Amino acid sequence: MSQNKAKSKIGQLDEPELAPLLKLSGITKSFPGILANDAIDLTVKQGEIHALLGENGAGKSTLVKIIYGLLKPDAGTFEWEEGALSLSNPAQARSLGIGMVFQHFSLFEALTVCENIAIADDQKLNLKTIALRIKEVSDNYGLPIDPDRYVHSLSVGEKQRIEILRCLLQKPKLLILDEPTSVLTPQETLNLFATLKNLASSGCAILYISHKLAEVKSLCGTATILRNGAVVATCNPKLETAKTMAELMIGAKLHNIKRPKKSGSHDNRVQINKLNLKSNDPFGMDLENISFDIQKGEVVGIAGVAGNGQTELMAALSGEVIQTGSHETIFFDGVGVSTMRVAERRAMGAGFVPEERYGHAAIKEMSLKDNALLTTSQKLNLVKKGFLQSNEICDLTHKIISDFDVRTTGLEMETGNLSGGNLQKFILGREILQNPRILIVSQPTWGVDAGAAVFLRKSLLDLAARGCAILIISQDLDEIFEICDRIAVLYQGTLSPLINTESASVDQIGLLMGGKTTE
Amino acid sequence: MDLLPVALTIITASTPLLLAATGELVTEKAGVLNLGVEGMMLVGAIAAFAAAVSTGSGLIAILVGAFSGVAVAAIFAVLTLTCLANQVATGLALTIFGVGLSALVGSNFVGISLEPLPQLNIGVLSTIPILGDLLFGHDVLVYLSFLMILLVGYFLSKTRSGLILRAVGESHDSAHALGYSVLTVRYLAVLFGGFMSGLAGSYLSLVYTPLWAENMTAGRGWIALALVVFGTWRAGRIAFGAYLFGAITILQLHVQGWGINIASQFMTMLPYLATVIVLVFISSDKMKIRINAPQSIGKVFYPPR
After folding, report:
1. Which domains occur in chain A, in start order?
2. 3-class state of residue A334 by DSSP
3. Average pLDDT over chain A, rounded to whole?
């Protein structure tokens, strides 16, 4: 750790012309059982784009919540433009000029764009004035949006635009963005970066939280890296490589994933023929004419921006929604499964990891042991004559926890207390240990930190090497390019043809994600 | 059939529903489901009646009725908002509590009758034939019911405070993240609901039947709740529903009086059936429901650490 620190200091770039805007020293915050922030020092200067890096649970979110006045630190000082003060609520933070774009949007779906912005506006302007200001600011920064639309009818990128506009209307001096690009297409990301650079050049400091190191390298001038609640390094990301920064984050060496070359075997594990599905969510997306196949030992990736039918496709494949049409559209191992329920499809050797971890993949209020049983009871014979086989279930849960490095306090731990990354390791582990013939995974590493993501992707590749046919539905293009053999893009409920990863480019996929087919 | 008295009784039958539903609309829009409307109305009714008997003042009676509704709502608010109790169970308990408390207090007031609240005669307007009686010859609570539903409709859709209240009901976590006090908004909304239910109860025991009878609300609190839901949380629809229910209640009595051979049970059922069917029919727009239904209704808000 000290080695890392010494090494990264070399890369630090001092820019004396910038005055410090925010200076935190010795910020400490503990929750029962966890020291979330351990004497953190952080200085953000005017007009700089400062990255805050770290794994899940490293304390980034806690730190920015303290800066935004949502949490009070147990110890430490908070200096803003040369004056020490203590924040009591977000309204006070906003009045200082601190704006925040949340990772999980804090938007109200049933309100209009204008109302959503008005509600975070501390100047208490009326809606008409705000609509005018929105037009003005959105023109200035190239963030077009119609103030009268209801938020639920907007795309994720547009929703994020509202969050950013909401902050910009307050004329912020410091803008905090929590993983802003996790939901954007590559082109939208470029637009966002242009906006951010524009903002920074006008003197606004930006605190940028991300785990996408390539983005941090291209955007940020300084990076502060947290691990286990403490600052382990401050560096200039332009002088580091993504690999060295990732190693600082996880405190260990990172191994690259090698995607094995596939033999051209033809064993159709999954075949989808002209799948049509009307969404039963009024704001959902109908699926139209979806066709694709997955061979034995192959990983197929479906890219696309959220809300283009991913939820519906997952529900149709897993059997949460049953096809009622007259002809079969979904075949597993050559058998039509369109009318089968989830349990029947699982019995055929299919495994599913839905996007929603709570409510679909696991039950928050139940223990790890009980959640382990939920999808495994049939295949692993954990129920005999209607009685639970307690010992076998415990063994299985232990195996998941040890094989997949789930950090827990025990088998009886309430699942809701797991962090997002740990929960995902648990859920994927539960499916992989059943040795499925077919595995369908939605957002395998969403919100999972770099170290764990590498591990999960490797586990998926190992599973494919053992012959499993895997479908990955993901918004993370890096991930798709890293592990998939063939890629298709879901846009507005229709699926592009499958492209071999070797012959696909990020630009091409990015354009498809935005609905453009030719360029 | 003389239409004027019929129209007047329709107004009398609809007013308590409209008052209670207005209060519950605000409560639910803030994301709290208070099933205790019936109980709050009963407590309001007996408190207003007792105050009227002992002071002889209509104004004092109305105020006592309304604020006893607030007091009962305060119990609900403390239990569900501060102590994080389940809203459905607490609301049901509140109704049972209200029935019992009002019966206990009311045992001394059975058989006493009151002069109903005076009509507020609005100058020359009340002397206009027919229209004068229909529009300008009512007591203060009837006017108040119209005023309140208009004000609440305006408050919710046009004011900043109304926007905050809707935001809290839509997503309490987001509202909290923006720095609004979810609990303060919800306390105020629940207390307002209690105030309006208390008024509705007062109307029953001071105007509708100016005497006390045990359980005299006869399910009107539940109808008010249903109106809010089937009116898809929109002030206009709720007022329409309240009057539709009042109108059918009165008209079916008249129809029974004509001696038409329809089972009286069916006629009694009619207002419930018709109101629900009509409101469901006119509101069956998925989008509109999604926009108007408070998404975090009934959910307990745990303030994050």
Report:
1. 1-13+24-97+172-254 (3.40.50.300), 107-171 (no CATH), 268-349+436-513 (3.40.50.300)
2. coil
3. 83
